[in-house]
Every structure is written in C-alpha cells, then in structure tokens.
Amino acid sequence: MAWSMSLSLLAFSLRLTSACPQLHKRQGVNSTVPEENRFWAYEASYDWGRLNPEWELCQTGTQQSPIPLRLDQGLSRFHTLSFDYPNTSTGDVHNWGYGPATTFLGENGASVTELPSARFDENNVDETVYLASWHIHAPADHTVQGDRSKAELHLVHADAQGKERAVLAIRIDPGNSDSRFFRQLPPFIGFNSTGESRPNTEMNMNLALDEINRFSDFWSYKGSLTSPPCTEGLRWFVARNIMFVSDEQMQAILKVSTFSARAEQEVWRHDINSD
Ligand SMILES: *[C@@H]1O[C@H](CO)[C@@H](O)[C@H](O)[C@H]1NC(C)=O
Ligand SMILES: *[C@@H]1O[C@H](CO)[C@@H](O)[C@H](O)[C@H]1NC(C)=O
Ligand SMILES: *[C@@H]1O[C@H](CO)[C@@H](O)[C@H](O)[C@H]1NC(C)=O
Ligand SMILES: [Zn+2]
C-alpha cells in the first residue's frame, strides 16, 4: 500500500498500528505469486529489497533501521525531546499480528492533532508530532552493546498531516516488580492475531514515559520503517533506560508475540546523536 496514503485512512481501513508493519498480517514469502504481490517475513528480512521493486530501499537505503547502538556513541546532546501527554488516552487494544498494540488515531473520531503530542528539534527546527499508536516487538529491534532485550515498545508519532515521522523506542526486560504501565492494560490473553480487540480502552501513556525517566537519556538517529517498504525520513529515539516488568508481565507479552525483529542494518548516514 502506498506510503502517501494518510495514516487516518489506513487506521480506519486496516487498523494500521505502527511505523513498522505496512502490511498488517503475518505473511510469508511466496515466490509463486506475482512479484509485486509477494509478501515479506521477518525471518527473511535480508532479502526484502529483492521481493518487490518498491521495496528497493530495504536493500539500498542509507538510513535503514534498526541499527546496533553502543555506549561509546554517547547519548543525544543536540535534540530536545519533550512530551505533552494527557493522563488519559483512549485507544483500541489489539494484536498487530506480532504482539500487543494500541491505536489511538481514529478511536472515537480522534484526529491527528488531538492526540498526545511530543516535540523535538531537527536542524534547529521545532517539530510537533502526535502519538498515533504503539506496538511491541519481541525480541527487541535495537541492541545496546550487543545485548538484545526481550521486547521493545514503539511509540509511533505522526506529523500533523498524519504521516509517520518519529518512533520512540523503549526496551523491555523482566525486573523485580510490576510495570504500572502494563498493569493498567487489559490482560493480553486471547489477544492473538485473529482480530480480537478492546476498543475504547483508557490508559495513561505517561506511565510508560515515567518508567524510563521520560527519555532523560536517549540515542537519536535518522532511520526508516523496519518493514517493507523501508521508507526513510523517520527520526528514531531509543531510551537508554530499560522498562522493567514482572516475570508474569513479560511472559504475558511473549505469549501473544511472534518473532518480529528485523536484522540489524549497517550504520551509514544515520547521523547518530547529531542532526
Ligand atoms: C502461493 O500463492 C499461490 C497463488 O496465490 C497459492 O495457490 C499457493 O497456495 C501459495 N503457497 C503457499 C505456500 O502459501
Ligand atoms: C498527570 O498526573 C500527575 C500525577 O500523577 C500530575 O502530576 C500531572 O500534572 C498530570 N498531568 C496532566 C496533564 O494532567
Ligand atoms: C485466538 O483468540 C481467539 C479468541 O479469543 C480464540 O478463540 C482462539 O483459540 C485463539 N487462537 C490461538 C491460536 O490462540
Ligand atoms: Zn515497530
């Protein structure tokens, strides 16, 4: 589907939930179907660029995501990042085909600019982006010092036109206590990829931010969608702090998750931690 299609249209028609899946359902490569209709699979992410000419960036792009992160890259010093999230957001909780997810855009008729907002600057230009959805990958997309967390939460932000613009990534691992963010959500049991969902679920997205000290420290880089068509022009923020959940919460996430980590990409023109 076309990248230029507005997020709101997609949200209504397909319940698109993320910057990563352009296709919503889990799909495998089937070489007997016409080239332009071939499907992709995370297990075969090395060859996405060859499956469809429109996915060439997956093979040739200079700012592909995810990338390996290291402490000696430092942390972002150039970008401000601030949040204006209300304490109650209403979303449709479901499984995006690979794990737990929530869509805010379109829920109760919400338009993009009514959604929780965040601000950052790129090349000294202030931008405001809006939280359209979140979803979870398992295992994590981004490694730090070669270490891969068990899962990664992506807060997908769109610009005022509804185009995906920034993804805020939070790594998730088991720790000693419950995560308040996850405790407020309905149980994920039954939230498999068959389409069950809980519309109009209220949640406090500030709880997710609070658990990683509101992105006090982060890596930032110029990246892409992590699935075909691998479109570039997205700003990534990866929190240094890990969100810790209880063993039971971790298991509940993993139980409804399917492998969804794209192979890490070579660092190239990502301008890590600078603009
Ligand atoms: C591949 O696609 C063809 C044509 O749509 C279909 O008949 C076939 O069953 C598919 N094969 C697999 C393994 O999904
Ligand atoms: C959200 O709740 C916290 C206390 O839990 C409060 O400090 C904060 O001002 C509230 N934010 C908004 C936007 O209402
Ligand atoms: C998926 O969820 C539906 C509805 O709760 C349930 O009937 C079905 O058995 C589940 N499928 C799997 C594979 O867990
Ligand atoms: Zn994602």
TrEMBL record:
Lineage: Eukaryota, Fungi, Dikarya, Ascomycota, Pezizomycotina
PROSITE patterns per UniProt: ALPHA_CA_2
UniProt keyword terms in alphabetical order: Signal
Protein name per UniProt: Alpha-carbonic anhydrase domain-containing protein
Residues in the signal sequence: 1-19
Alphabetical list of SUPFAM superfamilies matching this protein: Carbonic anhydrase (SSF51069)
Species this protein is from: Zasmidium cellare (Wine cellar mold)
SMART domains referenced in this protein's UniProt entry, alphabetically: Carb_anhydrase
Keyword Signal tagged: yes
Domain of life: Eukaryota
Limits of the Alpha-carbonic anhydrase domain: 38-275
